[in-house]
């Protein structure tokens, strides 16, 4: 079998543009002791072009036990590296529907990519799944590209002493021998890297008086610290709905707190995960709580079609921090912007925001320059028009995939103006532009 090209040059060896998955149905069995995961992935697929084969992404840490396909006959399959290629006995046409069932078992571990390790990771007593941008295949077979968004149903049986939190809504929880089986349903389309499971000895608390269902999940020993850290979570949601439009997911939002310290928090669709070290009222902790929440609009509901446009996630979430700052009684948004402009001005001027390259896709300059781009746009068009652009962008592309050109086009339509010079300077030139007065 020939080696298939990647769907995205920023994450080599991942994703297949020849087909799309419309729904995943995962049936998993996990044992904490020994970190053993057995699973069956059912992927309901549609071909996007005529093809003789398709590829799934799957870590070499998981062994393929069987492959079954409805809708075509598999001549042979091969699992090499992190790529499972299915070769059909004859070409299938574009628009053809396939149901692919892949059984696996093994000891999942994070996968190495251009930015380090990502995916299924054992904690001292539990598991986090942090897959951005390439770690989804560490625990299930998938078409690992951000533009391939699908519905998910995930059932996992796990040791009964543990809580398992996943994407979307909890559809069922039942006894399964000595284990408990949890079923999580994410109805709105989701990119594979945003799929997650969080496993720990956790207690669950629902926050009162919230405009959507909001939960905080974490160790009982951290209850007081979590109450303090998330004291403004409901106000944050209300503020972001005012800035960005309605919260995009029916199931609501959850903050999961691990018993371990984590280097950075992470967002997944409908939930974010934080380490115990961020359970405080410092600005550093509070800005990250705001940042991860903002990703539900920018990155989770509206997702960049390719990783080169990651500023549409991180720049927007960073700007949400700066918007939250004065609401929290801290510095003004403009003060935050000017402080960060000064920091960037002292750094190398060699990053192009609209195409940072795989090595720099998560460079802090992408976050801060992305936020500064939005602040410059706000200064150019005024508050009313600026927030109309943000709400229009989030609403028009809810649960969809976007490019930088989509944002530029919407901004031009809302303002009735050509904003090419502004966007060229901030997005396509490495030199840092001046901020307006």
From TrEMBL:
<comment type="similarity">
    <text>Belongs to the peptidase M1 family.</text>
</comment>
<dbReference type="GO" id="GO:0008270">
    <property type="term" value="F:zinc ion binding"/>
</dbReference>
<dbReference type="GO" id="GO:0042277">
    <property type="term" value="F:peptide binding"/>
</dbReference>
<dbReference type="InterPro" id="IPR050344">
    <property type="entry name" value="Peptidase_M1_aminopeptidases"/>
</dbReference>
<dbReference type="InterPro" id="IPR014782">
    <property type="entry name" value="Peptidase_M1_dom"/>
</dbReference>
<keyword id="KW-0378">Hydrolase</keyword>
<feature type="domain" description="Peptidase M1 membrane alanine aminopeptidase">
    <location>
        <begin position="233"/>
        <end position="426"/>
    </location>
</feature>
<dbReference type="GO" id="GO:0005615">
    <property type="term" value="C:extracellular space"/>
</dbReference>
<keyword id="KW-0645">Protease</keyword>
<dbReference type="GO" id="GO:0005737">
    <property type="term" value="C:cytoplasm"/>
</dbReference>
<keyword id="KW-0482">Metalloprotease</keyword>
<feature type="domain" description="Aminopeptidase N-like N-terminal">
    <location>
        <begin position="22"/>
        <end position="194"/>
    </location>
</feature>
<keyword id="KW-0479">Metal-binding</keyword>
<dbReference type="InterPro" id="IPR045357">
    <property type="entry name" value="Aminopeptidase_N-like_N"/>
</dbReference>
<dbReference type="GO" id="GO:0043171">
    <property type="term" value="P:peptide catabolic process"/>
</dbReference>
<dbReference type="Pfam" id="PF01433">
    <property type="entry name" value="Peptidase_M1"/>
</dbReference>
<protein>
    <recommendedName>
        <fullName>Aminopeptidase N</fullName>
        <ecNumber>3.4.11.2</ecNumber>
    </recommendedName>
</protein>
<dbReference type="GO" id="GO:0006508">
    <property type="term" value="P:proteolysis"/>
</dbReference>
<dbReference type="GO" id="GO:0070006">
    <property type="term" value="F:metalloaminopeptidase activity"/>
</dbReference>
<dbReference type="InterPro" id="IPR027268">
    <property type="entry name" value="Peptidase_M4/M1_CTD_sf"/>
</dbReference>
<keyword id="KW-0031">Aminopeptidase</keyword>
<keyword id="KW-0862">Zinc</keyword>
<dbReference type="GO" id="GO:0016020">
    <property type="term" value="C:membrane"/>
</dbReference>
<dbReference type="GO" id="GO:0016285">
    <property type="term" value="F:alanyl aminopeptidase activity"/>
</dbReference>
<dbReference type="Pfam" id="PF17900">
    <property type="entry name" value="Peptidase_M1_N"/>
</dbReference>
<dbReference type="InterPro" id="IPR001930">
    <property type="entry name" value="Peptidase_M1"/>
</dbReference>
<dbReference type="InterPro" id="IPR042097">
    <property type="entry name" value="Aminopeptidase_N-like_N_sf"/>
</dbReference>
């Amino acid at each position: 079998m020939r080696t298939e090209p990647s769907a995205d040059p920023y994450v080599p060896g991942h994703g297949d543009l020849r087909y799309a998955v419309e729904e995943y149905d995962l049936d998993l069995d996990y044992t904490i002791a020994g970190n053993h995961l057995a699973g069956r992935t059912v992927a309901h697929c549609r071909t996007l072009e005529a093809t003789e084969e398709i590829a799934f992404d799957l870590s070499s840490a998981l062994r393929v036990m069987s492959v079954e396909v409805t809708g075509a006959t598999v001549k042979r399959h091969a699992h090499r590296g992190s790529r499972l290629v299915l070769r059909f006995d004859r070409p299938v046409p574009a628009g053809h529907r396939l149901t692919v069932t892949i059984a696996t078992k093994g000891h999942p571990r994070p996968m190495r990519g251009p930015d380090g390790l990502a995916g299924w990771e054992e904690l001292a007593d539990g598991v986090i799944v942090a897959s951005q941008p390439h770690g989804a295949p560490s625990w299930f077979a998938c078409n690992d590209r951000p533009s391939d968004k699908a519905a998910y149903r995930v059932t996992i049986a796990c040791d009964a002493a543990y809580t398992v939190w996943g994407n979307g809504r909890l559809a069922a929880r039942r006894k399964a021998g000595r284990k408990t089986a949890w079923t999580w349903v994410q109805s709105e389309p989701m990119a594979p890297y945003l799929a997650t499971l969080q496993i720990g000895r956790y207690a669950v608390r629902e926050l009162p008086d919230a405009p959507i269902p909001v939960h905080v999940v974490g160790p009982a020993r951290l209850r007081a610290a979590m109450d303090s850290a998330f004291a403004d979570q409901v106000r944050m949601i209300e503020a972001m709905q005012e800035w960005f439009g309605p919260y995009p997911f029916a199931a609501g939002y959850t903050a999961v707190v691990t018993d371990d310290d984590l280097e950075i928090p992470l967002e997944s669709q409908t939930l974010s995960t934080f380490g115990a070290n961020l359970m405080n009222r410092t600005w550093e902790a509070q800005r990250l709580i705001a940042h991860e929440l903002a990703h539900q609009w920018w990155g989770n509901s509206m997702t960049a079609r390719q990783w080169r446009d990651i500023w549409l996630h991180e720049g927007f979430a960073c700007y949400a921090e700066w918007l939250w700052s004065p609401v929290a009684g801290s510095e003004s948004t403009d003060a935050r912007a000017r402080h960060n402009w000064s920091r960037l001005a002292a750094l190398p001027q060699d990053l192009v925001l609209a195409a940072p390259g795989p090595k720099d896709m998560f460079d802090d300059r992408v976050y801060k320059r992305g936020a500064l781009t939005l602040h410059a746009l706000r200064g150019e068009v005024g508050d009313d028009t600026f927030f109309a652009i943000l709400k229009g962008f989030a609403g028009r592309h809810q649960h969809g995939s976007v490019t930088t050109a989509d944002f530029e086009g919407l901004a031009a339509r809302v303002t009735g103006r050509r904003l090419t010079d502004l966007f060229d300077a901030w997005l396509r030139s490495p030199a840092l532009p001046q901020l307006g007065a």
